[in-house]
Design goal:
There is one protein chain. By secondary structure, the protein is of the alpha/beta class. It has one domain (29-292): Metal-dependent hydrolases (TIM Barrel, Alpha-Beta Barrel), CATH 3.20.20. It contains eleven helices and eight strands. The chain has helices at 57-67, 85-92, 110-119, 138-148, 164-173, 195-206, 217-220, 231-240, 263-268, 270-273, 277-293; strands spanning 29-33, 71-75, 98-102, 121-127, 154-158, 178-180, 210-213, 245-246. An eight-stranded parallel beta sheet has the order 1-2-3-4-5-6-7-8, sandwiched between helices. The longest helix is centred in the last third of the chain and has 17 residues, at 277-293. The N and C termini lie far apart (48 Å). Bound molecules: (1E,3Z)-4-hydroxybuta-1,3-diene-1,2,4-tricarboxylic acid. (1E,3Z)-4-hydroxybuta-1,3-diene-1,2,4-tricarboxylic acid binds at residues 34, 77-79, 132, 181, 250, 254-255. (1E,3Z)-4-hydroxybuta-1,3-diene-1,2,4-tricarboxylic acid is lined by residues 34, 77-79, 132, 181, 250, 254-255.
Length: 298
């Protein structure tokens, strides 16, 4: 028995995903995935809000190869707090095929940041979901931005659409590239032409430093697989902001309660939101390569 027991209602990732019918173009990047532990080697943080089942780098790399993905962007999961060791270990084991998004606090030293940069970290994540992290004042985040600016890193933000208006001034004050997780977490029952999603489209339209991950149909859907109700939202963003969109699996899918997606089906979702080969090339290959491997900054 290991040191950690996953939450009673935890859903573990699909151990046997389908082989996708859609063949990913060479160089495709899974721009949003995580590693959890393993807890015996990389303990979960005392302040975590959930305890997952382990999902380590070997399983992630096996999924990468199974799906036909070339590279990963591994996002520090909140269950590890600001201890990035599991994520950094995965980056260092990837042979240059993974980049990272870290969670740090403002007291971090320049040497620690440089070490993370050398391992492949290129961004930090600010998380605004109280079910995942305790809120911090804006100043906390501005201090982090000051620390990462010299390295040319960007900021990934995770918020729910209902909170966008209240955070608008802070978000738009950020002078880095800003990547928004999971299409800005719209309530898809409100419609793609509704006020809520309209505000999000305005955010990205008015701020050319904003990028969007068209990820997580399995999290956004009310209808369930094959996620028809999410298609218009993701497709609108891909159509309007073709050079600033990223795709990812979100493996191993933390905190899903309704169902666990088939990761092969998540690949098959791509042509539905990016119907042309040109749009897919940008979404899957060109955009993430520019941002995470070539160091595009703002
Ligand atoms: C996601 C979504 C979630 C969790 C985390 O770091 C995390 O714990 O990001 C969520 O629960 O919505 O992006 O994986």
């Amino acid at each position: 028995m290991g040191a950690f027991t996953m939450d009673d209602d935890w859903l573990v990732f699909d151990p046997d995903p389908s082989v996708p019918q859609f063949i990913l173009p060479p160089g495709s990047v899974d721009s949003h995935c995580h590693v959890f532990g393993p807890g015996d080697e990389f303990p979960y943080a005392p302040e975590r809000k959930y305890t997952p089942g382990d999902a380590g780098k070997d399983q992630l790399f096996a999924l990468r190869d199974h799906l036909g993905v070339s590279r990963n962007v591994i996002v520090q999961a909140t269950c590890h707090g600001t201890d990035n060791s599991s994520m950094l270990d995965a980056l260092r084991s990837s042979g240059g095929r993974a980049r990272g998004v870290a969670t740090i606090d403002p007291s971090i030293s320049h040497d620690e940041l440089t070490e993370m940069h050398d391992a492949g970290v290129r961004a930090v994540r600010f998380n605004y979901l109280p079910r995942l992290v305790d809120p911090q004042p804006d100043d906390y985040y501005y201090r982090i931005v000051d620390k990462i600016r010299p390295l040319g890193w960007h900021v990934v933000i995770y918020f729910e659409a209902a909170d966008l208006a209240a955070r608008w001034d802070f978000f738009t004050s950020l002078d880095t590239v800003v990547v928004v997780d999971h299409v800005g977490r719209p309530d898809v029952s409100r419609g793609v032409d509704g006020e809520e999603f309209g505000l999000f489209l305005r955010l990205v339209g008015e701020n050319p430093n904003f990028w969007v991950k068209v990820t997580c149909p399995e999290r956004l859907t009310h209808a369930g697989a094959p996620y028809d109700d999410v298609v218009p939202f993701a497709r609108r963003v891909v159509d309007e902001f073709a050079d600033r969109v990223l795709w990812g699996t979100d493996w191993p899918h933390p905190n899903l309660k309704s169902h666990m997606p088939d990761d092969g089906a998540l690949v098959d979702f791509v042509p539905r939101i990016a119907p042309s080969a040109g749009a897919r090339q940008r979404l899957l290959v060109d955009n993430p390569t520019r941002l995470y491997w070539e160091g595009e900054s703002w």
